[in-house]
Design goal:
255 residues; alpha+beta; Hypothetical Protein Pfu-838710-001; eight-stranded antiparallel barrel; 12 strands; globular
């Protein structure tokens, strides 16, 4: 990753405080996946159009997210069935900035993603106090019906468009973990363009230039399939086959 780090040093930085103007908590998301070896080329081509988030001198930041679901994985199954309205419930740690949040993500039937969150002191696998209040306010779910299922960890590069309200997140070093298993996904990049509304995007033009089609799988769903062998995933098989064939990622299981 030394090459990527060197290229990121050529980007103009943006701070967390400056990025407050492009939080995009209500937005549209466009996802792409490609091989890690292409990332240096892509970054070089767009470095004049985006600024990069710098957190305490780090331009690649670590994220650790603990996802919750019901005993029978009802939230996962909503994705699997292709239900247009669905939720993700998680606690997230921003490692470099030492911030913790409880987050509710809702995708509505118009394709918009709406995120609400509250700060936490730590992540202990429970939903209580302000987190529970947010859950009750924003969802039909109850904390007593949810349990911690798995960690989804990765490193993220966050780019902010110089001229329009757009962020691009670039996730690498993907890791899924629970008490029984630890799975690393190698050579994979998951990129996501986040906009208030559809606007001209240098990154989307870049993807079209290199014939990379829109489409990806939820990291949470990918993690569930990777860690829970008996979970139903027939509807995701075309995406899994496509990932294996075109990206040729490797999975290595650890202790």
């Amino acid at each position: 990753m030394e090459t990527v780090n060197n290229i990121l040093n050529d980007f103009e930085p943006i701070t967390l405080k400056e990025m407050d103007n492009v939080k995009l908590m209500d937005r549209t998301d466009t996802k792409y996946v490609f091989r890690l070896e292409h990332l240096p080329t892509f970054l070089n081509e767009i470095k004049d159009d985006y600024r990069v988030l710098d957190v305490n001198g780090h331009r690649i930041s670590r994220y650790e997210s603990l996802y919750f679901d019901t005993r029978n994985f009802d939230l996962y199954m909503s994705h699997h069935r292709g239900k247009p309205t669905r939720y993700k419930i998680r606690c997230r740690k921003y490692v470099e900035s030492e911030l913790h949040f409880f987050e509710v993500k809702f995708k509505n039937n118009k394709g918009r993603t709406i995120k609400d969150r509250v700060k936490q002191k730590l992540i202990d696998g429970s939903i209580k106090d302000k987190a529970e209040a947010l859950l009750v306010e924003k969802t039909p779910l109850f904390a007593a019906h949810l349990e911690a299922k798995l960690w989804v960890n990765y490193s993220r590069i966050t780019l902010v468009n110089r001229n329009s309200p757009e962020r691009v997140t670039i996730d690498i070093n993907l890791n899924f973990k629970n008490e029984e298993s630890d799975v690393n996904i190698q050579n994979l990049v998951i990129a996501e363009v986040k906009q208030d509304k559809a606007l001209a995007s240098t990154f989307i033009r870049l993807m079209k230039k290199y014939h990379i089609r829109e489409g990806s799988m939820s990291k949470y769903c990918f993690g569930v399939i990777s860690l829970f062998n008996k979970i139903k995933h027939n509807n995701f098989k075309p995406k899994l086959i496509s990932l294996k064939k075109t990206l040729k990622y490797d999975t290595t299981a650890g202790a």
